[in-house]
Write a structure and sequence with these properties.
Helix content is 34%, strand content 21%. It has 12 helices and 18 strands. A 6-stranded mixed sheet has the order 1-2-6-3-7-16, with helices on both faces. The chain has a 4-stranded antiparallel sheet with strand order 4-5-18-17. It has a 4-stranded antiparallel sheet with strand order 11-13-9-14.
Length: 430
């Protein structure tokens, strides 16, 4: 990143004064140049969100994802990064993974320090092509509306303008800033998960720019999402004339569901609920095949591993010996688990927000699932923080998705200060 500016001396002087006199003094008021630079990015960030919203990029609209990837690549390249669009080649095939998934945008910015910091977001949405006309970008009071703006086009814009802010301040005390923008997050990241995990393993800190909540928060833990698929193969026969000649797959399925019903451990955050079942083709035919699906949630990766083993063991106990029973378990997303390091970094973020006289919660107990931060954390040696994006509401909705404009400056200030402080070893250990 080419970071040369006459403001460098001013910034570093202000930073030194801000941190002089201990932690309490350091966190008493905003660092002036950083706050001013965040304010200067406000309109530009609204413009960037408009440009991103105006490109439809549903997860299964690969051409749309490729178009938005080109825009993001060009913006990051203009900031001096080494940027590439990476096609998804190492695809983890889930039950509903399309034949082709969207690419990723990968960028690196080199500084003069040693710390490695990763910023992640996603550019795909849940929407079908053609829905933009119903949710065009618009500003109404303190809200900016638009298709996919809350999930997660604002997160992409926040990363772009955090980097722009750091460039304006000529800050380069980091070692490497890595940016990864995912193109298949909304379908459980089958193409990006291995890349996210690989890059995340070598970072001193990872910041994920999903929404920061209606009430400002940072998130350290999310539930993992899993799915179980049960298949029973029986044998068809006439239900009236010769039922004994068949093997009733529906009976076997019912038996299996009953013996697989009590695997949840709510006290540990493990949940397994059978939600979909299908069997048979005609009223007068003994069903020859039956299937069922279950939704699974867990707070620990090890709980998913144990659940998968238990499912395999249980299905060996059959009601009808001639039936064939198989079960497949897939981890759609691993859980994100809070660590002492992530708690310490999040508390530092709370203090940074206090400089702006703003409150912020830290969520370190899982209350939901679905974040690429969990893939980043699988082998991470540093803390992982989710929820670095703007405040907003209405993700995945038909007509009410928005971000709160008054959260732009605080979140740009937070992201920039967190990067600065990690780069300069100014985050106290817990």
């Amino acid at each position: 990143m080419p970071l040369t500016s006459p403001r460098l001396h001013v910034l570093r002087t202000c930073l030194a004064l801000a941190f002089l006199g201990g932690a309490h003094a350091a966190l008493a008021a905003p660092v002036g140049p950083v706050h001013e630079a965040a304010q200067a990015q406000k309109q530009g960030m609204l413009d960037t969100m408009r440009d991103l919203v105006n490109i439809e990029s549903g997860s299964k609209d690969v051409e749309g994802v490729e178009r938005i990837a080109e825009l993001i690549r060009d913006r990051l390249k203009a900031l001096g990064g080494k940027v590439e669009i990476i096609p998804a080649t190492d695809v983890f095939r889930l039950d509903d993974t399309p034949e082709k998934v969207g690419p990723m945008v990968h960028a690196e910015f080199k500084g003069t320090g040693t710390k490695k910091i990763m910023l992640i977001a996603h550019m795909d949405t849940v929407y079908r092509n053609g829905m933009l006309k119903d949710q065009p970008f618009r500003v109404d009071g303190d809200k900016a509306y638009g298709l996919g703006i809350a999930d997660d086009k604002h997160g992409v814009a926040t990363i772009i303008h955090t980097l722009t802010l750091l460039q304006k301040l000529d800050f380069k005390d980091f070692g490497t800033l890595t940016v990864l923008i995912n193109g298949d997050e909304e379908i459980s990241s089958p193409g990006a998960r291995s890349t996210i995990t690989r890059l995340g393993a070598d970072q001193d800190a990872i910041f994920s720019f999903e929404g920061g909540g209606v009430e400002p928060r940072l998130t350290l833990a999310t539930s993992g999402i899993g799915a179980a698929y049960l298949t029973v193969q029986g044998k068809t026969s006439h239900a009236g004339a010769r039922p004994e000649g068949g093997v009733n797959a529906l009976y076997e399925l019912a038996h299996q569901l009953l013996q697989l019903d009590k695997l949840s451990k709510p006290e540990d955050g493990l949940k397994l609920n059978w939600t979909v079942a299908q069997a048979g083709t005609n009223r007068n035919v003994i069903p020859g095949q039956a299937t069922a699906q279950a939704d699974a949630r867990a707070l620990r990766v090890s709980d998913f591993d144990a659940l998968a083993r238990t499912l395999e063991e249980r299905v060996q106990k059959k009601l009808l010996p001639e039936s064939k029973v198989s079960v497949k378990f897939e981890v759609r997303r691993p859980p994100l688990e809070a660590t002492e390091a992530s708690r310490a970094l999040a508390q530092h973020g709370v203090k940074i927000y206090q400089e702006l006289d703003l409150p912020m919660k830290v969520v370190d107990r899982a209350s939901g699932g679905g974040t690429d931060a969990a893939f980043a954390a699988l082998k991470a040696r540093g803390p992982v923080i989710e929820g670095m994006g703007l405040s907003g509401f209405g993700a995945h909705s038909n007509d009410a998705e928005y971000i709160q404009i008054n959260s732009i400056v605080p979140r740009l200030y937070l992201a920039s200060r967190m990067i600065m402080d990690v780069s300069q070893d100014k985050v106290p250990a817990k």
